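Write out the 3D structure for:
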Amino acid sequence: MGWVFLFTAGFAEIIFALSLKYNEGFTKLYPSIVTAISGGSSFYLLMLSIKTLPLGTAYAIWTGMGAVGVAILAIFLFKESADGFRLISIGLIVIGIMGLKLTHIE
């Protein structure tokens, strides 16, 4: 169940980070509510996941999922750069996440 909590926390982290762009310094109500709920949910689910998963692994995967998810979505949503070096760098993060997952098989 720890992995389910962790991956759900990672997706909530992506929503949290993206909502920061839309809440404009907490001046817009609905995006600010999304920020608060997704951020709180992400931390809570991460907390649940570390009850059964190693802290270092869980935290690295959680931050990696957030970084990769936001970087990819920012390319599409905000027209950020999609040059080769950036895509290779994102790919290396994904490889690192996969490696951490493979080191802890239940």
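Residues 2-103 form one domain.
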